[in-house]
Design a protein that fits this description.
alpha/beta, Rossmann fold, Tyrosyl-Transfer RNA Synthetase, Structural Genomics Hypothetical 15.5 Kd Protein In mrcA-pckA Intergenic Region, Chain A, 3 domains, five-stranded mixed β-sheet, Tyr-tRNA-ligase_bac-type
């Protein structure tokens, strides 16, 4: 991948939703190394799979010698980005944001190279400049460049204004100016001339380009990556049991791996292009041969392995493969006590039980395989529940023979959801 065809490569991989002045940006990349940035507001203690594409694009730029800057929104997260949100975000306290900033910063440091010389990645926090800012100076020097008419007509704002039950607060309305100011300052301090973000950030990125052009008479660029949704319209990375986080303590590597194994077959080859660094020619070859000996399953496994390795590392991937081998291939016929200890250590969902469990319904709720006793009961009667891989058709009372080596019981819902009860 050369500097000249980087933008074309991003297009070919489905990684561009919007881009400004494509030809000019391509010429700039051909002749110069640039600095680019992407912002992440710490509104949770972890990033999730929806944040992966911007990080992958930053990494692709860095691999070609460009300097990626990650901006943590320590200040902007106190305001909340209204972009395409149905209602006002919950306000978070500074203490939480400080804790989440440290955790997210640590996560990001695993994706980019922060020690490779001239194009080492840089991690900044916009709280550094916003905590010193004077509101009157900001309104005079920055606010004057923004037309209320233009801001109101942005689709993300119009959507909220048209809903009288929600509307939009001035606090959220001002977010657009704050992100624009970030781009302006980074352009001044670090010569950043490209901002990337999700497709929902197009309005905020455009505002930054407008401000830089008006104040500094410079041409800068914006690039957004697609926002992915599943066939049911649910945002990619959300499942019936919650968000798929990048933090191994919030989503185990095993569950993370299974998320990718459970994607729809029609998405496999697009996701290989978007989320992995496998060459396009190799992916094309895979797609052409997908129906030969059912290679499509092999390709989905490749996708799951590549992304799990990228996020959690080789050691955690090997652990996931051990769990998968036992649950889907070996079964429990020849399992040993050390195997079960290893499964627990490797990260299969597990619960420790110190009191007597009343019945199977209670166990399913405790194991988070059911949300209520009623749902658990329905699952049992639907023949969806197994104990140690054996189907259970009635509300079972646990016996000593259910405890493998007197210590473990594998509780399963269907073929893909498991929990190890540790007695």
């Amino acid at each position: 991948m050369s500097h000249f065809n980087l933008i074309n490569t991003l297009y070919d991989r489905g990684l561009i939703s919007h881009i400004t002045h494509k030809d000019n940006l391509q010429k700039l990349l051909q002749s110069n190394f640039i600095s680019l940035y992407c912002g992440f507001d710490p509104t949770e203690e972890s990033l999730h799979v929806g944040h992966l594409l911007p990080l992958i694009v930053l990494k692709r730029f860095q691999m070609l010698g460009h300097k990626p800057i990650v901006l943590i929104g320590g200040a902007t997260s106190l305001i909340g980005d209204p972009s395409f949100k149905q209602k006002e975000r919950e306000f978070y306290c500074s203490k939480n944001i400080d804790i989440w900033t440290k955790k997210i910063s640590k996560q990001i440091s695993c994706f980019l190279d922060f020690n490779c010389g001239r194009n080492s990645a840089l991690l900044l926090n916009n709280n550094k400049w916003f905590k010193k800012i004077n509101i009157l100076s900001f309104l005079r020097e920055i606010g004057k460049y923004f037309s209320i008419n233009t801001m109101i007509n942005r689709s993300s704002v119009k959507q909220r204004i048209s809903r009288p039950d929600q509307g939009i607060s001035f606090t959220e309305f001002s977010y657009n100016l704050l992100q624009a100011y970030d781009f302006f300052l980074l352009n001044q301090m670090h010569e950043v001339n490209l901002q990337i973000g999700g497709a929902d950030q197009w309005g905020n990125i455009s505002a930054g380009m407008h401000l830089i052009n008006r104040k500094s008479k410079k041409e800068v660029y914006g690039l957004t990556v697609p926002l992915l949704t599943q066939s049911n319209g649910v945002k990619f990375g959300k499942t019936e049991s919650g968000t798929i986080w990048l933090d191994a303590n919030k989503t185990s590597p095993y569950k993370f791996y299974q998320f990718w194994m459970n994607i729809e077959d029609k998405n496999i080859y697009n996701f290989l292009k978007m989320f992995t660094f496998i060459s396009l020619s190799e992916i094309k070859k895979k797609e052409e041969q997908k129906y030969i000996d059912n290679k499509i399953i092999e390709d989905k496994t490749d996708l799951a392995k590549n992304i799990t390795r990228f996020i959690h590392g080789e050691e955690k991937l090997l652990a996931v493969e051990r769990i998968t081998e036992f649950l889907f291939l070996k079964g429990l016929q020849n399992i040993t006590e050390s195997d079960l200890q290893q499964l627990k250590q490797d990260g299969i969902p597990a619960i420790k039980v110190e009191k007597k469990i009343k019945d199977l319904q209670e166990a399913l709720v405790l194991a988070s395989l059911a949300t209520s006793r009623t749902q658990a009961k329905n699952m049992i009667f639907a023949n969806a529940i197994s104990i140690n891989t054996q189907k259970i058709k009635i509300n079972h009372l646990f016996k000593n023979q259910d405890k493998l080596f007197g210590k473990f019981t594998l509780l399963s819902r269907g073929k893909k959801n498991h929990c190890l009860i540790c007695w």
